[in-house]
């Protein structure tokens, strides 16, 4: 029973620490190969645990059948280990080819010898007292396994000297697995009734889990954090770029690009009937050309900024866009729309006062959305633009009368 306890504990530990790998069928070749190897090892542990129980119970027929399963599981696990190493290395060279065919030859050898053993005991037998005896072929099979594990370990250890530190660490771990298995198989040949083979697989899979799988999880976490950090950095850069593109550099209000995007969105809302109360105010700065010609462009820029500040203060609840050198647009919704007439009247009164005092003069025309006219943004804008030019004409006439 003590023999079986080791195999049962080994099985439980394997299932617990490798739960994520066993339950997930990934697309990565190395993980798929290692997953198949773990399944074969689990089958081996199961057969090994039954072996001890059946052997102590002297159930010769049952223990003989279990021994056959035991050797088959052992051979398949070794074969799948070679396939996992090949998938891990991802190398197409003479060694991986030789390892591939050696793994197949080993499993074929075991299947044939187990078939022959039914008729001639060349691998194992049980005497009349139910005592297990190993035969020469069993030791040959173990020798082949030792050579496969050891050769694989030595190759990977050699191969690791040509890799970077992170990959070398993983190579050394796989090499350690092969060496541990080789040593435990050697001891198994000396003590055939001890569960040393199970102990070897238990130690080996724990080593791989601790120093490769857990390390890879950490690497994936670091890579994910790096990707997230890059994505956030790109989002910030895109946000900064968008801020630059959508903001007018001189005045700080929204740019023509932002205006074009807002126009498309409003047209979409109008077509869907989602926007019922909406108005457009169009502004044009009077006398900007004269100021640029007589006082210079710095004075002209100041005139634009001061004029923009007046518009923003008056229509403080609505987005302001600079769509040209001396042209601004305000899109009125909500509170500013409800107060549109009062806001326009107050703005025009201020402009008349500014005209008398020789300050900034801005012409404004406002038009609202009229559902009965099946309005589009452009048609509303054009009506507001006409009103703006009418206002400009009135202000110019007022200035001439004043002068």
SSE order and pairing:
Layout: H1 2-17, H2 19-23, H3 29-56, H4 60-89, H5 94-117, E1 124-126, E2 132-134, H6 136-160, H7 165-190, H8 196-245, H9 256-271, E3 279-285, H10 288-295, H11 297-314, E4 320-322, E5 327-332, H12 334-338, H13 340-357, E6 362-368, H14 377-402
Antiparallel strand pairs: 1-2, 3-5, 3-6, 4-5
Helix pairs in contact: 1-3, 1-8, 3-4, 4-5, 4-6, 5-6, 6-7, 7-8, 10-11
Q: Enumerate the spans where pLDDT stays under 50 for 5 or more consecutive residues.
A: none
SSE string, helices as H and strands as E = HHHHHEEHHHHEHHEEHHEH
N- to C-terminal separation?
117 Å
- Enumerate how many helices there are, as a single number: 14
Mean pLDDT: 86
Helix-strand makeup class: alpha+beta
User: Briefly, what CATH class of the largest domain?
Assistant: Mainly Alpha
Percent helix, as a range, is over 70%
Q: Note the main sheet.
A: 4 strands, antiparallel
CATH topology of the largest domain: Rhopdopsin 7-helix transmembrane proteins
What is the chains' assembly state? single chain
Number of domains: 2
Strand order of the largest sheet: 4-5-3-6
| Strand elements, count | 6
Beta-strand content: 5-15%
């Amino acid at each position: 029973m003590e023999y079986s306890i080791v195999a049962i504990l080994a099985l439980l530990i394997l299932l617990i620490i490798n739960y994520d790998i066993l339950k997930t069928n990934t697309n990565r070749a190395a993980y798929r190969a290692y997953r198949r190897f773990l399944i074969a090892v689990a089958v081996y542990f199961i057969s090994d645990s039954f072996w001890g129980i059946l052997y102590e119970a002297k159930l010769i027929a049952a223990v003989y059948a279990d021994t056959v399963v035991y050797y088959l599981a052992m051979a398949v696990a070794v074969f799948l280990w070679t396939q996992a190493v090949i998938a891990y290395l991802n190398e197409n060279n003479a060694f991986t080819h030789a390892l591939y065919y050696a793994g197949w030859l080993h499993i074929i050898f075991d299947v044939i010898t187990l078939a022959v053993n039914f008729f001639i005991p060349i691998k194992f037998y049980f005497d009349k007292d139910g005592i297990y005896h190993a035969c020469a072929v069993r030791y040959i099979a173990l020798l082949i396994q030792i050579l496969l594990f050891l050769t694989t370990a030595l190759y990977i250890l050699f191969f690791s000297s040509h890799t970077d530190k992170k990959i070398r660490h993983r190579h050394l771990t796989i090499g350690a697995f092969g060496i541990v298995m080789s040593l435990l198989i050697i001891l198994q040949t000396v003590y055939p009734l001890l569960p040393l083979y199970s102990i070897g697989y238990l130690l080996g899979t724990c080593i791989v889990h601790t120093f490769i799988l857990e390390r890879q999880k950490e690497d994936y976490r670091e890579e994910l954090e790096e990707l997230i950090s890059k994505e956030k950095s790109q989002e910030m850069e895109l946000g900064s770029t968008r801020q630059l593109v959508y903001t007018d550099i001189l005045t700080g209000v929204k740019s023509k690009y932002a205006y074009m995007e807002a126009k498309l969105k409003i047209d979409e809302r109008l077509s869907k009937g989602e926007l019922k109360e909406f108005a457009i105010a169009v502004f044009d700065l009077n006398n900007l050309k004269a100021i640029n010609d007589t006082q210079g462009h710095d004075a002209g820029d100041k005139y634009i900024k001061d004029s923009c500040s007046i518009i923003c203060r008056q229509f403080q609840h609505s987005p302001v866009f600079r769509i040209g050198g001396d042209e601004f647009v305000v899109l009125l919704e909500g509170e500013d729309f409800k107060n549109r007439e009062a806001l326009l009247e107050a703005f025009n009164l201020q402009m008349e006062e500014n005209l008398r005092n020789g300050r900034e003069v801005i012409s404004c025309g406002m038009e609202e959305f009229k559902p009965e006219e099946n309005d589009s943004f452009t048609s509303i804008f054009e009506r507001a633009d006409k009103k703006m030019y009418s206002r400009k004409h009135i202000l110019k006439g007022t200035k001439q009368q004043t002068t």
